[in-house]
Amino acid sequence: MNNYRTTFDDVGGLEGVRRITEAFYPKVQQHPLLAPLFPEDIMPVMEKQTKFLSQFFGGPSYYTDEYGNPKMRARHLPFPITPAHADAWLDCMRRALAETDLPDELQRFVLDRLSGPAYHFVNTTNEQET
């Protein structure tokens, strides 16, 4: 028997990740810097993000099973992403996590875990491109 708990387990499994994603994307859609990077129909993006975060947090490989290797940096290259975008993305996630019933320590851990990828996707410092 596996007694190893993952972040996926700690946030409540697939439904917990879905709750985070559903709290997160309305904030993204309202953010002046982030909204232009996303399609009007956000539902497919939300579903992909739920699958990706589930896998990223140590859960089942939903994303890879359906879409193949995540290659997230490559998937984000077509979009100009500045440090300000990464900051805004993380702030939206921080606010989404604050709406959950997750313990503060877990919220901080999740945000810290997502900080690396958020800044890894930065591909320009030119604010004029946004």
UniProtKB/TrEMBL annotation:
Q: InterPro entries recorded for this chain?
A: GlbO/GLB3-like, Globin-like_sf, Globin/Proto, Hemoglobin_trunc
Highest taxon listed in the record's lineage: Bacteria
The record's keywords, sorted A to Z, are:
Heme, Iron, Metal-binding, Transport
Family statement drawn from the similarity comment of this UniProt entry: Belongs to the truncated hemoglobin family. Group II subfamily.
This chain belongs to the protein called Globin
Q: Which organism is it from?
A: Paenibacillus mendelii
